[in-house]
C-alpha cells in the first residue's frame, strides 16, 4: 500500500452476490492501522493495475491458535476474479508465513451461497472442526 495506490485500493469491489463474504477494503485498512503490529495488508497488482487485496494476521503469541498466523481478508475485484489472482495472493501470504517460521496458515469463512469455501478447499485448506462466531476454521499445513 502506498499513497499513490490508495485510491485504486478503495475502488476494489467484489461481485454483488458475494456481499457479506468479506469486509470492504476501507474497513480492513482501518483495522490494519489499529493492528499495526500484527496486520499484513497487501495489494495484488498485475503490472500497474490493482486487482485485489489480501491481509494476513501474524500474532504468534495469540492464545487463540487460529489467530496466530492466518488470512484475515481477501478481496479480488469482480472483473478480475477467475484469473488466478486469488491463488497467487494466498501463495504469497503463505511464503510470508514461511519466512516468519510458521508451519501452518489458517482462514475462517462463513457459509454463504457465494462464499469462498470451494476456492480454499481447492487450494488445500481443510476444516479443523472448529467454528468461531459461526465461521468455519480451516488450515493449510506448510511444507
Ligand atoms: C474467493 C476469491 C478470493 C477467489 O479469487 P479468484 O481470483 O477468483 O480465484 P482464482 O482465480 O485464483 O481461483 C483458484 C481456483 O479456485 C477456483 N475457484 C475460485 N472461486 C471458486 C468458487 N467460488 N467456487 C469454486 N471454485 C472456485 C478456480 O476455479 C480456480 O481453480 P482452477 O485452478 O482449477 O481453475 C474471490 O472470488 C473473492 O474475492 N470473493 C469474494 C470475497 C471472499 O469470499 N473472500 C474470502 C474471504 S475469507
Describe this structure in words.
The chain has a domain at 6-103: Gcn5-related N-acetyltransferase (GNAT) (Aminopeptidase). Strands 1-2-3-4-6-5 form a 6-stranded mixed sheet, with helices on both faces. By secondary structure, the chain is an alpha+beta fold. It contains 4 helices and 6 strands. Coenzyme A is lined by residues 14, 18, 21-22, 74-76, 81-87, 107, 109, 115-116, 118-119, 122.
CATH architecture of the domain at 6-103: 3-Layer(aba) Sandwich
Describe the main β-sheet briefly: 6 strands, mixed
**What is the H/E string?**
HHEEEHEHEE
Number of DSSP-assigned strands: 6
Strand content: 25-35%
- Strand ordering within the main sheet: 1-2-3-4-6-5
Give unreliable regions as ranges: none
Estimate the mean pLDDT confidence. 97
Please state the overall shape, judged from the principal axes of the Cα atoms: globular
The molecules bound to the chains, other than polymers, are: coenzyme A
For this structure, what is the CATH class of the domain at 6-103? Alpha Beta
Sheet/helix structural class: alpha+beta
Amino acid at each position: 500500500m502506498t499513497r499513490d495506490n490508495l485510491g485504486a485500493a478503495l475502488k476494489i469491489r467484489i461481485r454483488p452476490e458475494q456481499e457479506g463474504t468479506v469486509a470492504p477494503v476501507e474497513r480492513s485498512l482501518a483495522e490494519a492501522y489499529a493492528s499495526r503490529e500484527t496486520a499484513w495488508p497487501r495489494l495484488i497488482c498485475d503490472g500497474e493495475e490493482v486487482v485485489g487485496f489480501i491481509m494476513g494476521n501474524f500474532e504468534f503469541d495469540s492464545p487463540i491458535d487460529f489467530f496466530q498466523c492466518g488470512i484475515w481478508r481477501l478481496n479480488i475485484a469482480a472483473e478480475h476474479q477467475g484469473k488466478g489472482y486469488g491463488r497467487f495472493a494466498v501463495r504469497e501470504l503463505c511464503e510470508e508465513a514461511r519466512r516468519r517460521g510458521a508451519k501452518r496458515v489458517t482462514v475462517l469463512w462463513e457459509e454463504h451461497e457465494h462464499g469462498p469455501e470451494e476456492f480454499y478447499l481447492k487450494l488445500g485448506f481443510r476444516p479443523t472442526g472448529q467454528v468461531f462466531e459461526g465461521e468455519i476454521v480451516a488450515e493449510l499445513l506448510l511444507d
